[in-house]
Design a protein that fits this description.
This protein has 338 residues and is of the alpha/beta class. The protein contains 15 helices and five strands. Helices cover 56% and strands 7% of the residues. The model has no long low-confidence stretch (mean pLDDT 88). The structure holds zinc ion (ZN) (2 copies).
Length: 338
């Protein structure tokens, strides 16, 4: 699969590595595009080219490149939500208690300190920061200062699922690379070639993954993705059959999932959205669902719209950290009864 991402994005990567060399081997790059389309992989590929001493090639097999690939290179530092903090920073707290789901200022302080140190084995030290849009305001300000103060040897590769939520000041310090999803038909062909599967199977995976490369890949690499989908559909079928009291119990169950495994939670919500959308298309005699979707409910179109609106509301409320249990209770009670 990785060779496919490579083929797909190599021109872009080579163009920017040329740009990097021409701009005095210095700068910050912001990779922007929807979640699960392979930005992390593309950033890593870019990091390899910046670190590697060989000629520019995306297929290099040297020790540096292999270490970047397996996240073992001391000069390539990955930062994401919940990562290592600067324990001596005055902003640091015990985070197991504060429940924060953003990149914290004490993490940025650690980067600030490391960015001032020389690289240990290469000419360049690279910081790959994932989920840039999920950063507190104070973290964004600290990052901006770090980008401004860092020596030329420190390069920042910033990844964002939602460019609109990245502070304008940070954006203005970066070269922005827009990573577009590949088209659904192309992805289907890639899956057929790469996994030697039939057209229908490939099309099912494209639909389940909303045509996102990494998400599609996950369906082949582990059973978890398919299990999560089946469980999501199963849960929704139960919820719409429940009375109010049972729905409230379910709201509690899902508020715990939201708290403990937010990524899984939003994945489930996405599957519910798809499931209702497929019903909507089906009501209009359009088939956009995976071929194996066995059962369609006889919803009225306005019930489907109502459910989709309720999903949108609950998603927005949860992202704003409103009382999750209350939001989920309202959501489950709002769903049609079957
Ligand atoms: Zn190399
Ligand atoms: Zn901390």
């Amino acid at each position: 699969m990785n060779t496919i991402i490579r083929r797909q994005y190599q021109d872009l990567i080579l163009k920017y590595s040329k740009h990097f060399n021409e701009s005095d081997r210095h700068g910050s790059y912001l990779f922007a595009g929807p979640a699960h389309i392979g930005k992390e992989y593309i950033a890593k590929l870019f990091a390899k080219i910046l670190i590697c001493d060989q000629d520019i090639s995306i297929d290099c097999d040297c020790k540096d490149c292999n270490d970047v690939e397996s996240s073992l290179h001391g000069d390539v530092i990955n930062i994401d939500i919940g990562g290592i903090c600067d324990l001596t920073d005055s902003n640091h707290r015990n985070h197991s208690e504060d429940g924060s789901k953003k990149i914290r200022i004490c993490q940025i302080k650690r980067i600030e300190r490391l960015a001032l140190l020389s690289p240990s084995r290469s000419k360049t030290k690279i910081f790959i920061i994932n989920n840039l849009d999920l950063m507190t305001d104070e973290s964004a300000n600290a990052l901006l200062k770090t980008l401004e103060d860092a020596p030329h040897s420190s390069v920042f590769l910033l990844l964002s699922n939602n460019l609109e939520q990245v502070a304008q000041t940070v954006q203005s310090r970066c070269h922005i690379l827009n990573i577009a999803p590949i088209n659904a038909k192309l992805l289907q062909n890639i899956l057929v070639d790469n996994y030697a599967i039939g057209d229908i199977h490939a099309e099912d995976i494209v639909r389940l993954s909303r045509a996102k490369l990494n998400a599609a890949n996950e369906f082949f690499n582990s059973e978890d993705s398919m299990n999560l989908f089946n469980q999501a559909v199963n849960d929704m079928e139960k919820i719409i059959s429940f009375d109010s009291i049972k729905r409230l119990e379910y709201a509690e169950k899902f508020s715990i999932i939201f708290r403990k495994e937010p990524e899984n939670f939003f994945q489930i919500v996405m599957h519910w959205e798809d499931w209702f959308r497929w019903h909507l298309y089906n009501a209009n005699k359009l088939n956009c669902a995976p071929s194996f979707l066995a059962k369609y409910y006889d919803f009225e179109v306005k019930q489907i719209f109502y459910a989709l609106q309720a999903l949108l509301n609950v998603k927005n409320e949860l992202k704003m950290n409103v009382n999750p249990l209350l939001s989920l209770e309202v959501f489950f009670l709002d769903l049609p009864q079957f």
